[in-house]
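Run log // design_07
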């Protein structure tokens, strides 16, 4: 990892699990546990999946303006990723010792989304909490 990126991540205090999670492993793990709303998910698992989903959604939504095929592909992609993303967000909140019901904060305009992003970016509890043991960190 470039030193400048490591410094940036250290400054954001996101290095403990984001840099230890491989992108493909995060996506694979998210789809393997797509209906698992119990347990915990690390920051790396959540944020790598969010990054990959945002990239694919941006590209397909941009291409959907050019062709109905891409519009259909974008719709299918959103449907395919919705439940895995939801379960991953719930498990991520569990890692910070919060209930999945905190996801309803997105209904509060502006501030709710900001608070939810802060909750999702926080470091998880290092020991077992009421939702289980700390998640395993997948490395390259």
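design_07 sequence
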């Amino acid at each position: 990892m470039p030193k400048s990126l490591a410094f940036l991540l250290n400054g954001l205090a996101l290095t403990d699990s984001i840099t230890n999670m491989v992108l493909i492993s995060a996506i694979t793990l998210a789809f393997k546990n797509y209906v698992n709303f119990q347990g915990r998910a690390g920051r790396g698992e959540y944020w790598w999946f969010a990054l990959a989903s945002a990239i694919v959604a941006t590209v397909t939504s941009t291409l959907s303006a050019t062709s109905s095929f891409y519009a259909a592909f974008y719709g299918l992609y959103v449907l395919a990723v919705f439940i895995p993303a939801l379960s991953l967000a719930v498990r991520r909140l569990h890692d910070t010792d919060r209930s999945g019901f905190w996801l309803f904060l997105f209904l509060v305009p502006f501030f709710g989304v900001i608070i939810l992003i802060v909750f999702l970016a926080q470091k998880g509890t290092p020991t077992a909490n009421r939702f289980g043991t700390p998640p395993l960190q997948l490395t390259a």
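The chain is about 60% helix and 0% strand.
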